[in-house]
């Protein structure tokens, strides 16, 4: 990869990292600056288990709700891949998420930490202000469930 191409990938990686860091800090103003703010194309977002959210207002409202109801969240990104073509950049990664679960009822101590694996695709647009997030799609990685004791390879219990 040539020098200029490498620097463009580094810019996109920086924008991607800034997105996750803003969510971790609960910095709604910074998160708002990271998302594309033009009318065309409309931004979209899919959080794990949510329907498609379309439009800046709907997407940012979802992050406001998540930030208001999440005491702690940290992302450890792995398998990060960046592809750049003209004025768009595609980032795929695994989000290794550590978040604070709900506090025990009636207690003052924080809730337990909960881990989750999510595969994410982030699409960025090059704008005069830099790379802006256009679309975020996150899908949970389903964990293998252990087979019942005595079950055969097909999952059926003999007999």
Report on this structure.
This protein has 159 residues and is α+β, with helices and mostly antiparallel strands. The protein contains three helices and six strands, in the order H-H-E-E-H-E-E-E-E. The protein has a six-stranded mixed sheet. Helix 1 packs antiparallel against helix 2. The longest helix is centred in the N-terminal third of the chain and has 23 residues. 16% of the residues are buried. The mean pLDDT is 87.
Termini, distance in Å?
60 Å
State the helicity in percent bands. 25-40%
Report the portion of residues in β strands. Answer: 35-45%
Q: Give average pLDDT, whole number.
A: 87
For the sheet with most strands, the description reads: 6 strands, mixed
- Strands of the widest sheet, in order across it, are 2-1-6-5-4-3
Which blocks of ≥5 consecutive residues have pLDDT under 50?
Answer: none
Q: How many individual β-strands?
A: 6
Provide a count of the helices: 3
Spell the H/E element sequence. Answer: HHEEHEEEE
Q: In one word, what is the shape?
A: globular
Structural class given helices, strands, pairing? alpha+beta
Gyration radius, to the nearest Å?
19 Å
